[in-house]
Amino acid sequence: MRWILVLLAAILGTVAASVAGVDFGGEFFKIALVKPGRPFEIVTNVHSKRKTETIVSFNGEERVYGADAMNIEVRRPQVAYSQIRRFLGTSMDHPMVSSLTENEYFPYTLTQNLTRGSVALKHNNEHVFLAEELAAMVFGHARQITNDFAEGPVKDWVITVPMYFAEPQRQAIIDAAEIAGVRVLSLIDENTAAALHHGVDYVGLENGAPERIMLFNMGSTSLQVSIVEYTTRVVPDGFKKNKTIVEFEVLSKAWDETLGGAQFDLRLAEKFANEFNTKLKNGQDVRKIPRAMAKLRAAARKTKIVLSANEEIPVVVPSLHADMDYKGHAS
Question: Where is the signal peptide (predicted)?
Fold first, then answer.
């Protein structure tokens, strides 16, 4: 598919209502807001952050989102639901679904929705939430912070999806958005959205030759790579005027659904768990203890971030299990 950027500029320049562009990631979501006659803005959440954790937790009957929900996940992981996107439009035997409970030690109780054939999650043995319902809760929170930022309702959204999403997964995104009370104008592949953004300010080569670039997108749950070709051409624009049109085409794309930042977190958490298990008796495994494993995942995420700028970091998790601390190092 060939995208013409002058068309995008024309649409944005004449938009009659506010539109939100939602980058719905596996671990975080981000929102861009386009209002009539104004350049786009990045929406900030209640903590004045540009990205918000893709998670919903329950504190009794109250729903909690974002960083506050992450705090609950560490204390009560059985009532905190993250990695929601991986459940959408899939079945229980999908490798990325079964991996969450079998290999990544999330304490979820999954069940099959017989009507839709999709995944549902049991909550407190009292409620069953469809994956679309959980995603709709997150979308509802996203809608609220967008409306607050825009100082008015924003009903129209464009949502990014991974390039490997099949039709059932894309439809599940649309269904979740509709439950949340927003209208999806379009779904766009994540890498295509990045290519579009790059093309807005693209100048082109001096000789006018096509230029190819590679987009490397490693997210929380997957790796996606695209090869994109940009071209420019000059066309008449009124009397004695010309304008330059930028076009791009996605020539090829590839992905790995199993390789993402969460896998780095898991490797660190596994290292910490193995070291702590040497302190336990009777062959106990801290991975089987939901609260302890949630603490190790949180420590792994923090360690990964710190190691991005440091060669070594001491890791301490107080009262990990059985009144014992975990103390170690990562490099």
Answer: 1-16
